[in-house]
Write a structure and sequence with these properties.
The chain is mainly alpha-helical and about 675 residues long. About 60% of the residues lie in helices and about 5% in strands. Among the domains are: about 220 residues, MFS general substrate transporter like domains (Growth Hormone, Chain: A); about 200 residues, MFS general substrate transporter like domains (Growth Hormone, Chain: A, Up-down Bundle). GO terms for molecular function: transmembrane transporter activity.
Length: about 675
């Protein structure tokens, strides 16, 4: 296991472990389990009318009469068999008026609803890994306590807290895994680490334990293995770069390289593209993002409703509880594995196509289920096959919705949008929990509800959902606003002039440089730049037109008479001054004398006025030399020689300064 596969496998294992904890959403099927029939102590066997053992009609005939043909004892054992000792069987809470409305599954979904409101926003603000880790750390003790208490009210409270933790492991954990796994292996790896595998593992735990408290303890123990793995892994570099934490992102990528066992070329300064921050308001203002956002919300709502109506009411798809639940997970797991392995070769099978195809199969299976219920074929192979395929197909729609969300929403708001979408799904799940009463009154109504919503959904997805296969999640919905060059502390690319920095080399004062270095190498490919330019054109801000200034009235300005006369006099005076200056200049030019200087080849003409000025300076220096001058100790031979030559004929060097001033 080498290369980037190593990290992908680690992320896959981590996600599968936390899915075992998240499968507490499905474990409510076992917690709420009640047999369809039961027998009293005096061997009166009856069919339950609800999930309460005392809710039966005593006037109904005994299912195992005394004068029956065959073995009455075997009949009593069959109708009194309890496949799983559930919390509902222990507490019998559904016999009360309040708990008939507020089911155990209801409070768990309320917890996930509350968690999604908060945790997605916190994950976008404080990081994926941080919230992911805290969710697992908070959820495992709540799971252990819920299996230890003996009071039904406290039990319901801790099941609500477990729901809050599950929202973190599902929503934030899925976002973290998607951002860490290589894009080209995304669907293939999730074909091996997925929800149906967690379902089958949970069914296996329940089958071995045969009792709800022991199964809960085993699930908590396995889930705790995620904590050291999360502690060891780095934060998502995609999130760090989006939050302008480029130095931390560089360290995270080096950590990923060490985990993967691969090395990549780095530069002391590397180029990155700075993007404009995306807010929920901008999603609503952008037509393309808004359409994708609204479609994802509707998909999550109605798919969650359909999946949980099918799942929560499927405990009796076979007489054996474990067989039906295990088959449902097995069929879904096999379907996801086949899809994941064939996806690289089926180039036309994107998220949208996968969703539409799966939804169509689910609609056909719902129709078959309704037909079987009307023909009283419940319990037959046809009913079992239609039910398991319907559940598997509808769950694949949910996986396609997950992938569409993370690939169509910008990084800045991905976890927030994921939380909002999961809120919509939990609303659908809560509505699904309230449909359980229809199972005892008119069961086909459950699947008529699914048919209506799924038919509407398949039409809307066909016309409105955008394809997102192999999307570059860093570029989704982004508008580039400039380039940033982040400093890489440790490594220099091979072939550059600057050597790697050692411990003796001082570190730079600032880890962030906003000037383009010579060895800068862009981290953005040509394809990404095309996406940026396309998004820039689409997301270009509308600039308000400036308000035109009022034009001043044009016309001659009236000047008072005294001021006008003064201006005219000043103009006449200035004209006379200019004429005088021009006359004087011509006179001076005519009086120039020729002064020879020994420069080798050059003769310089010096004005007469300048010669007179030089002679005056010469005389003053001579007087100073005779009367006031005293030699300085520091005077050298060259200075003395220059002083002695003052009385001689001036050289070009002596008058060079004056010549330059004259020429100017």
């Amino acid at each position: 296991m080498t290369g980037s596969w190593r990290l992908d496998i680690i992320i896959m294992v981590l996600y599968q472990i936390t899915l075992i904890f998240s499968a507490q959403l499905l474990f409510v099927i076992f917690l709420d389990y009640m047999p369809q029939t039961y027998c009293t102590d005096d061997n009166f066997c009856y069919k339950l009318q609800s999930k309460c053992l005392t809710d039966y009609d005593a006037n109904e005939p005994n299912l195992c009469p005394v004068n029956m043909t065959g073995s009455r004892r075997d009949c009593i054992v069959e109708h009194k068999t309890l496949y799983f000792y559930s919390a509902q069987f222990e507490y019998q809470q559904n016999c009360g008026a309040f708990y008939k409305v507020v089911h155990l599954s209801t409070v768990t979904f309320i917890g996930t609803l509350l968690g999604n409101i908060v945790l997605g926003i916190l994950a976008d603000k404080y990081g994926r890994r941080t919230i992911y880790f805290l969710s697992v750390l908070f959820g495992i003790p709540c799971l252990l306590i819920s299996a230890s208490v003996e009071n039904v009210v406290v039990f319901y409270i801790f099941r609500t807290l477990i729901g809050i933790a599950i929202s973190g492991t599902l929503t934030v954990g899925y976002t973290y895994a998607i951002e860490m796994i290589s894009p080209d292996r995304r669907l293939r790896l999730f074909a091996m680490a997925n929800w149906p595998n967690a379902r089958m593992i949970q069914v296996l735990f329940a089958y071995i334990s045969q009792e709800w408290t022991r199964t809960t303890f085993v699930s908590a123990s396995i889930s705790s293995l995620a904590l050291p793995i999360l502690w060891w892994l780095p934060e998502s570099p995609i999130w760090l770069e989006q939050k302008d934490k480029y130095e931390e992102a560089s360290r995270a990528r080096k950590r990923i390289e060490r985990i993967s066992g691969v090395s990549a070329d780095h530069h002391n300064n590397y180029e990155m593209v700075a993007f404009e921050k995306v807010t929920p308001k901008r999603i609503l203002m952008n037509p393309k993002l808004r359409t994708s956002f609204l479609m994802i919300l509707f998909m999550y709502f109605y798919v969650g409703l359909a999946v949980y109506i099918t799942d929560l009411n499927g405990a009796d798809m076979t007489r054996n509880l474990y067989l039906g639940q295990f088959l449902a997970g097995l069929v879904l797991s096999m379907a996801q594995f086949i899809i994941g392995m064939t996806e690289p070769y089926l180039t036309g099978m994107g998220r949208r196509v996968l969703f539409l195809f799966s939804q169509l199969i689910a609609i056909i299976c719902y129709i078959l289920i309704v037909i079987c219920l009307y023909l009283n074929w419940k319990g037959s192979f046809t009913y079992l096959a239609a039910y398991t395929i319907a559940y598997a197909s509808q769950s694949i729609c949910l996986e396609a919705a997950y992938l569409s969300l993370v690939e169509l929403m910008p990084t800045d708001v991905r976890a927030t949008v994921g939380s909002i979408a999961n809120i919509c799904m939990k609303v659908g799940s809560l509505l699904a929990t309230e449909t359980q009463a229809l199972k005892f009154t008119y069961e086909p109504a459950l699947f008529f509800i699914n048919l209506v919503f799924c038919s509407i959904g398949i039409v809307l997805v066909f016309f409105c959902l955008e394809e997102s296969r192999e999307a570059d999640m860093k570029m989704v919905g982004q508008t580039a606003i400039g380039k940033i060059f982040a400093y890489d502390e440790e490594v220099t690319a091979q072939g550059t002039d600057s050597p790697p920095r050692t411990s003796e080399t001082p570190a730079p004062e600032s880890p962030l440089v906003i000037a383009e270095p010579v060895t800068a190498t862009p981290l953005v490919s040509k394809e990404q730049l095309k996406i940026i330019e396309k998004n820039n054109a689409r997301n270009k801000l509308i600039v308000e037109k400036p308000i035109p200034k009022k034009k001043e009235k044009e016309g001659p300005v009236e000047i008072p008479t005294p001021v006008r006369k003064q201006l005219e006099n000043e103009k006449a005076t200035s004209d006379e001054s200019l004429k005088t200056m021009e006359t004087g200049k011509k006179t001076e030019e005519s009086k120039e004398v020729s002064l020879e200087t020994k420069t080798g080849e050059t003769n310089i003409n010096v004005p007469k006025s300048l010669v007179k000025f030089a002679e005056e300076q010469k005389n003053s220096l001579a007087d100073t030399q005779e009367n006031d001058w005293t030699p300085l100790p520091s005077e050298n031979k060259s200075a003395a020689k220059a002083r002695d030559q003052l009385g001689k004929r001036p050289s070009q060097n002596t008058f060079s300064k004056y010549d330059n001033e004259s020429e100017k």
